[in-house]
């Protein structure tokens, strides 16, 4: 949500940097998604041990 909104605002301010901003946004969103998946995996592992 916030990553995409910030990227769209940045592209609106500097349209010539759209490619660089889009690349950075995709990388940031991928890292956030990976952290979420790892968090869920750890939570399921903890629940399974209890």
UniProtKB/TrEMBL annotation:
It is a multi-pass membrane protein. It is found in: Membrane. Coiled coil: none annotated. This is ATP synthase F(0) sector subunit c. Keywords: ATP synthesis, CF(0), Hydrogen ion transport, Ion transport, Lipid-binding, Membrane, Transmembrane, Transmembrane helix, Transport. F(1)F(0) ATP synthase produces ATP from ADP in the presence of a proton or sodium gradient. F-type ATPases consist of two structural domains, F(1) containing the extramembraneous catalytic core and F(0) containing the membrane proton channel, linked together by a central stalk and a peripheral stalk. During catalysis, ATP synthesis in the catalytic domain of F(1) is coupled via a rotary mechanism of the central stalk subunits to proton translocation. It comes from the Bacteria. The keyword Ion transport applies. The gene is atpE. GO terms for molecular function: lipid binding; proton transmembrane transporter activity. One of its GO terms (cellular component) is proton-transporting ATP synthase complex. Its main location: membrane. Residues 1-46 form the V-ATPase proteolipid subunit C-like domain. The chain crosses the membrane at residues 24-47. Belongs to the ATPase C chain family. One of its GO terms (biological process) is proton motive force-driven ATP synthesis.
């Amino acid at each position: 949500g916030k990553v995409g909104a910030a990227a769209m605002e940045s592209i609106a301010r500097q349209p010539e940097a759209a490619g660089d901003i889009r690349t950075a946004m995709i990388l940031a969103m991928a890292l956030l998604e990976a952290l979420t998946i790892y968090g869920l995996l750890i939570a399921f592992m903890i629940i399974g041990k209890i």
